[in-house]
Fold:
Amino acid sequence: MRTVIINGANGYVASNFINDLLKQHYKVIALVRGNGKDPEDRMSKVLAHINDGKEINTSNLEVYDYSLIDKKFSMNENVLKSIFSGSVDYFHFAANLKYDEKSVEEIFSTNVDGVKNSVQVYLKYATDSSRFFYIGTAYSCGKFSGLFEEKFYENKDISAFRNYYEQSKRFAENVVRTNIQNNGLNGHVIRLSQVVGNQETGITKTDYGIFDFSKRINSLANRYPNEIVRVHVDPEATQNLIPIDTVTGQLIKVVEEKEVPEIMNFVSKNPVRNSFIIDTLNELVPIQLIPVKNLEPNTMNPIERRISAGMSFTESYVSFDVLFDTRQRDTFLKNTETGPDYKSIAKMMEYFIGTLSKKKTKIDAA
Structure:
């Protein structure tokens, strides 16, 4: 059984992946940025959060403090030699999720220079039988029309993307590509669409994407109940959502198999319409949202302007309808069921709004 090394290990997808690997008795090396805190404590807390406080067997888990952009990760060389010995699968999850122009230096430092450094460490210490997996995003497609294929695309100017996050992730893919071609890197790219909650249980422990939007709307609904407000959302456009349990199951399959395609798009074949997300929110919170495809700022009332300001990231994706090629993924997985269906999304949103209500009740009680 291969050892699995994961950086950015306390992130949402990475930590859920680790949780499933431990349940299947894999040895896992978690690289966690301590930020002045105990990295083991940070990892323990996130695993406890995933498991609702229930203990899991972590005897196969080793946690190390590391710095992504520092030489040798600021880790002891003997430790690096030890953890990379034997056959390992190395997963690069670490990423900066900022997207704005004022943060561009920070974004590219983490998302591009960090990947360069990660590859360098891997090439220096990993064995020939090891593999490097870069976890990218399906939204590295940028402002793409047509079928976004499972292949590398050239770097483009920022005008080809919605934001600097997307651009940095495209550049990072090409760091992997260059090292595959020039330095013999046994590298692979896995692109994820928007990862949501568990499609079976509805349990949702991320506030990214549609859940960030839901959180903002819930907050406003509590302040301005029974208002009717317009939101700048194309009701006919879609969100490509993939459940966390689907993602981790597919990643486990990657570890299990010897032959893995160079690039795969881990996305849903059944995008969810924005109109359904809005209708579901209208049932869950005391406010009435009306999606408007072309909502001009000068026609907005104060509440609508407040919603629009909070959607500075989300608003870029409300008219998003790219088609993703999944032929390599489908051949590899032999099971193309990706979910989620509309019922499971409604369950996730209900769970998420419910947790917000519980937090508010605790704050009010305090």
Q: What stands out?
A: The first strand starts at residue 3 and ends at 7.
